Amino acid sequence: MFGVALVTFFVARVIPSDPAAKWAGPRATPEQIAKARLELGLDKPLVVQFGKYLMDLIHGNLGYSLRTRRPVALELMESLPATIELVLLSTFAAVFVGIPLGVISAKQKDHLVDHLSRLFSIGAVSLPTFWIGLILQLVFARTLHWFPMGGQLSTEIKLTMEIPHVTGFLILDSLITGNFVIFFDALWHLILPGITIGLYPVGLVARMTRSALLEILNEDYITAARSYGLRDRIILWSYALKNSIGPTSTVVALSIGYTLVNTFLTETIFTWPGIGSYVATAVIGLDYPAIMGVTIFSAFSYVILNLIADIIIALDPRVRT
Amino acid sequence: MTAYFEIRDLAVSFRTFEGIRPVLNIERLAIERGETYGLVGESGAGKTVLALTILGLLPKPAGIIHSGEIWFDGDDLLKKSEPELASAYRGKRLAMIFQDPMSTLNPVFTVGQQIERVIEHHQGLKGSARTRRAMELLDMVKLPDAKNLLRKYPHELSGGQRQRVIIAIALSCGAEFLIADEPTRNLDVTIQAGILKLIDELQRNLRISVLFIANNVSLVNVFCKNVGILYRGKLVEEGPSALVTRHPQHPYTQTLISAIPRDKSEKLRFANIEIKPEAPQGCPFYSRCPMGVERCTQEEPMLEPVGNLQHRAACFFVKRD
Amino acid sequence: MINWFADTYKSLQPTWREFKLSFYLLNRNALQRISLIIIVLLVLVAIFAPWIAPYPSHAISETNPQDKLLPPSSRYLMGTDELGRDLFSRIIFGTRISLQTALIAVGLALLIGVPLGAIAGGLGGWADEIIMRITDIFLSFPPLLLAIAIAAFLGPSLSNAMLAIAISWWPWYTRIIRGQAVSIRERQFVRAALAIGTPMSRIIFRHILPNTLAPVIVQASMDIGGVILTIAALSFLGLGAQPPTPEWGLLISTSRTYFLNAWWYSTFPGIAIFITVLVFNLIGDGIREVLDPRTRKF
Known about the structure:
heterotrimer; A: mainly alpha; 15 helices; 0% strand; globular; C: mainly alpha; 77% helix
């Protein structure tokens, strides 16, 4: 598995061989380009470049942003907490809303509840995230004024209050320092982007849970359990659910990965200062190191996530022996 | 006035691709308290369906109960609601042993967890009292080293061991009526004998009634008081096992019994079976019966006493005196 | 080669029968019938776009500045954009683009992934190892990420976007095919063919491949919806279609500057995406439910 991670980096490196020449910028003169090449060591053979890149990576050096000339790694770390807030929120929703929804749907197969939730799931999965974000913004923020248009905090607060900075997570920080005004404001700002990003994972997880559960409920041991007089509700929530841990955790990992990438799309809409906005600006400005840095980071996190999911699956007693 | 356990006029069908297929058509099947009844039929005759129907475990959209009554100790089980069945009957008074020991045990829970959950449900015991009871039960089914066994997972046990565990779980419910659905189907012949012996002993010691379902007459012969022969969902002959096996009256039973080799010197005789076209109404055995006539295609023969009142067969050719 | 087609056709015959049966089943559910109808409609719209759209030229290049940003009316069913172009016509042409690019992208992915999977599963050994390692690498990226990265580096254009998607999608198919191929490889008839001395290449392509196609077809049809979404996302980010192409994602992206005053500009393309993807997803779901024997209703 870790070999995969390593080779991941390899692939990410091979791709940018094209823009090597575009590094210096579109308006650079030939001399400037040549100078840049030297600077970056692009004149050395590819293998050497790659070696250097790997070394940099291991040390956490992701290169320098073309736009700001600051280390990419640093900028990543700055934008990360905001995105993590969103991702965590959506994962939460996926697990605590999606899974129960899937379970109930499977139990009441073909009844109204099932059809409704299936419709919802498929709908949630078919929505273009960026579009629904826009619509939500339009309807709830602009027209109805129920929620703010974007940003993590209202401008007045930003200007008037001191923002706590313990962990970098606004919600946590404000809780820790007991600043409830900021806490509620941050929460309020979190809602629209949260819903936007959360829809897809909830839909996906609900669907997968439902199908996994349907399969399980058809198994003999469930019928046997019923024949012993065990209540259906118990059988469903403690018995069958444990059997579904494998596929469920895989799906949750998948949905987190998806969400991460979805943030690229939604953050710009809500002016949310996370990785997504960072990437969006990078893409527009063709800031290759930045893009590469984010790519590698995301891929890396994804691999770790899947690793965790695999470990959970391996806990299945059948695999252990 | 009904017997302790009595099935009357039961008609069950299954909804399939090609339409509704009748599966069970049982006129009358009665079992007295403390008796063992063996139900014999070939694959597809509807035996498992019967077992599931008794406990109300037929798969929901697919299984249809057209008519009939299943009397148990004065109550018609078919008239009971699902929650009533679950709380008052399943496990508590009627328990079932399934065919395939591997698929009947939940693979992600230990044996101990599974037994103890049922014990807790029925007897309300917790903690060490519960574990002690679990070990008692394992002793009852002659499984050695109960303490360690409880901690094992189903796939770590052999087929015979698993089946004993299942019997233990069924017993732990404290039921007075046991339905054994081909409990030895997937086991080696040598193990089979052990399981049969076990069931017989348990029946005598605990004084429970047993409905023993098998696909093989010689199995039930040994310890069943009465025997019933099921052909394509219809009970075609029943009576005291000695009588039925030594003096079979129904052509189907006769074919079954004659197929059992008496001793090694007897040459295998293959019955010359002329297959006649199916008779949609009338006797289901018509197409394979060596003696079919016009009447057999029009009327369905009912169970009529043959000589000894206990012994009944459903055929027009049976001698009645 | 012709032989190969004939054989594939023959071995697909039973699948065809099942297909017809599944088709019948599919239509029993009202929702799926509607979806099927809508898909057919969409395809028709895509094909006949120039004749259906009231202002076909708007979709391509003509601009109409004096009518800019008008709300929906009887003249302009869905309003106009900032250059006065009829949104309705543009969206209709967008159907063409979305369907086309999705089909091409998926097709490419299949073209790469399927043979690779068949070889990996059919040959086993080191070919299997290598191919699967490569596949694993690609699979360790979250689905959209690779597409975004590749599109970013290749340069923003619709065709590059298609390429990017194809490159990030093929591993999924390879994995499916390989799994199937491995299980078929173990079957009797393959061993029999080997015993007679049939060369491996023939075995793979004539025997194994046709039998593995079913799940992949299901998966691919389910994927079309997702691919349409991805293309829209890429265009939204500026990595796919470029103006003036009336691609739905691009429309939404451009609309952002104006949407506070021109709600129709953002709403309708999004609805178009939503309905299209929804319908494909529904059908895909239906196909899956029907083809998977375990979840069939009886």
